[in-house]
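hey can u run this one w/ zinc ion bound, need the structure tokens asap thx
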Amino acid sequence: MRYVYAIDVGGTKVEMAVGDETGRLVATRRVPTGELGRGEAILDALADRLRALTPAGIAPDAVGVGSPGPLDSRAGRLLKPSNLPGWEELAIERGLSDRLRMPVVLENDATAAALGEWQYGAGRGADDMVYVTVSTGIGAGLIAHGDLIRGTAANAGELGHVIANPGGVRCHCGLTGCLETEASGTALARMAEERREASAWFRAYDGPLEAPEVFEALRAGDTVAREIVRHAADRLAWAFGLLVNLMNPERIVVGGGVAAVGALLLDPIREAMPRYAMPDLLSSMTLVGAALGADVGVAGAVAVALRA
Ligand SMILES: [Zn+2]
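ok here u go:
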């Protein structure tokens, strides 16, 4: 049995795991991102913690890392991730490879998650599939003909930054009207705050309105919440329509913190899709929720490592 290390980097926490070649996680550990320090110290801390995590008698032979983009995958380093202070320009592939004496592969986190869902989750058996994460941000991983589409600089799948509303809200990426500004968890929160006075449920809620409150208001029958979710679902359906017409996928798997509400978001997307995708291509595609839940990041990083 082959074993590998997995690291899923996030703005608030870093998850580490030892996984086997079937994707099973045999040891896991979660560390607050801030505890790992800055710059080179991060590499020492990651290597130390992976060694400490390794069960006796097991010898992992590769490391897979999923990280928020943008990345320089060819050089195996991060660029300027907006929510990871101290990680700028971090050469994680070479740095960890020097310390652990094994190959290290860095991938965009959405790409890693796509690999995880494809090999161990809701994408299993589909040679043409797209994984879309709808969370604080929006990203995608693309699988075609049974292989990953990475693009010339390995940044393919930036679905969150296709323009879904020209002239809309300025995005942190520098563009205006990105899908992420219309349909992410951050967008749902912004739209709810903008319309707080129009909704009795929002007005009565004492605290910042975030995506979970929007769905809670929707469950309670609030019409403003319904309009906000419909709008986000419509913009997602439009983007999925592009994917269907361009890639003719067998499956679109939707995961991420916001999509965890399931049918409340997926049903309005399914209803809107006939407006944006060609009927024949749409009829050969199924839209499903992700299967791996909170483990998708490390499971994906295991899948990344197994490709080394
Ligand atoms: Zn953007």
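The chain has a mean pLDDT of 95. anyway lmk if its weird
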